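Quick one, probably user error.
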């Protein structure tokens, strides 16, 4: 059974940084494109960034230049380095693959506030 466990969220001031992690198990992690998503209570879940199995990346325009997605296929872990955080980045962050979703994890809450 596939399990995705996100961690690393917290409270940070505007302009600050956080690094999120997503530990994956029960799947062939290295063979899968993986992605980060986020959702706040007033919006639908939205795509943030993707990384392909060979390391190519794509980003939503709202985070381009501030966020960096990476992966460690030995540790079966996905990362999201978030810099220059803004209040509008506040959300619960999830990882999953972008096609044929696995069961969603619980996510990790990021709150950007002064």
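Nope, works fine. Designed sequence:
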């Amino acid at each position: 059974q596939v399990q995705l466990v996100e961690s690393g969220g917290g409270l940070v001031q505007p302009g600050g940084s956080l690094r999120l992690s997503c530990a994956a198990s029960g799947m062939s992690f290295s063979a899968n494109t993986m992605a980060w998503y986020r959702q706040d209570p007033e919006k639908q879940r939205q795509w943030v960034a993707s990384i392909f199995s060979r390391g190519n990346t794509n980003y939503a325009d709202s985070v381009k230049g501030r966020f960096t997605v990476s992966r460690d296929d030995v540790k079966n872990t996905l990362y999201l380095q978030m810099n220059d955080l803004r209040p509008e980045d506040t959300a619960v962050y999830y990882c999953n693959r972008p096609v044929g979703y696995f069961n969603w994890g619980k996510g990790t809450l990021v709150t950007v506030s002064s």
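The mean pLDDT is 96.
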